[in-house]
Specification:
This protein has 18 helices and 13 strands. The chain has 529 residues and is of the alpha/beta class. Strands 5, 6, 7, 8, 9, 10, 11, 12 and 13 form a nine-stranded mixed beta sheet that branches.
Length: 529
Amino acid sequence: MRQTSTAPRNNKLKPSSNLIMNGSVRVRVIRTLLAIQNGQSLSSVLDPLLNSLHDGDKGFAHALLLTTLRQWHALARLLDTLADNPIDEVEVRTTIQVGLVQLLYLEVADHAAIHETVEAAKEIEFAHSTGLVNAILRKVAKNPSKFRKKCDKKHSLPNWLAYQLKQDWSEQYDELTQGLRQPAPMFLRVNSAVTSVEDYQQALDGAEIDADIVELTTGFKIANSPESATATTLSTKGLRLHQSTAVNALPEFALGVASVQDMHAQLAAPIINQALMAKLSAENANTDSDSAESNNNELHILDACAAPGGKLAHWLELISAKNESSLFHVKQDDAETSPAITDIKVTAIDNEAPRIERIRENLQRLNLSQHDLQQADNSIALNIVCADATRWQHGKNKKAATNEPVFDAILLDSPCTATGVIRRHPDISILRTEEDIEQTALLQADILHNLWPQLKAGGYLLYVTCSILKQENVEQMQDFITHHNDAVAIEFTEECSWGIEQAIGRQCLPIDSASGDGFYYALLHKTAE
């Protein structure tokens, strides 16, 4: 999801492309924070910051930046109570908030935090504010526990977002808003085509990296006919590290044995894969020997909005594993008469060329590029397309294109406000605005309306967001089904060990026992009109 730019009041920053990375560590962090307030995402400015520093300073800079962002709005409210007059200069406010973080959260020695922050104000050419910066930080340093308690008392979100969460999640509100200001754990997805979660846990242990196995169970009902449905369950296993670790320290990471992926994000590929397998099993069970030859044994699946490619890679891993999770190994009652899947065509789209390149890089590391798939198995074809999901039609540039339904399954990792991943991307609480919700919901609807006609009758669409706002999730699905008579929501059963049941789908919040991010899942079945 592209991030919405929102510039602060009285912003005097130079264009972000001219971001200067020199001066003290604190000055570089301040300039990075100013760039974020000027509309730049954390992901675009973090590497330039860290790459500009000596190794010994990177840890402190990273902690100072991320902690300041996580506590940003709480610090801003505290600052307003500490100043005798409103502080309108963004640079001054930012500098003071960086000083407050050192005193309240990072336990930097008082004299160092105050002196270095005052010097930072001079370096960014706001020497006129040094008296104010010094006075406020000295006041806080006299009783840091008092001000830390005051800062932690409520949420650290923009008021509009806190209000919306109160409306959507009143019972979970306090725990949720406090949880969003905490760091998120690091999860690993193990490539099941290469090794098992248990074996990789042992490999981590050998590298002195502690990790727990997290197992999530998913249950849902697949419609066999208008009158009947079959319950299906699946288990998804991942690894939760006790401490975040550099990927180059992970055993065989470069060889594609494991990937960094949130535990709740790891649900997507298994769900859509299992739905498709259940569909094929039901079709095979209803196929007799006289009609077997007429059945199409080719599958075409779509990953829409696929970048950076984690869910796509997971799906390809499941398909290529050639075990019980593979679409090539759907259980059949009579192998001689039931048609087997012999070819799978995988299409992935995203609308930005750099993000397409990121998909290719991730698949290459995992040995899942088109070349790798062809070398391993000629029956999997992968096509990655740079296109706008609100307008893209499969095959529209081909002479024989008819724009008829072509896909057996669609995974739509929909654009959203990303409010469910604020723990990992705390800049979201600065960059997002209340207006973004409505605009994003309209974008989601446009994508759904464009992709749905391209799904075959009997096919499945898995709708996924990393949002915790109901307007982008369950309310979006309710509206969609109201306007599409051929769309039926698949029921998740009580077998599910994750998420909160919604009128349609399930909602994960970043406060459950798995400690995953805030993801929403809804599985839709397309019926014949």
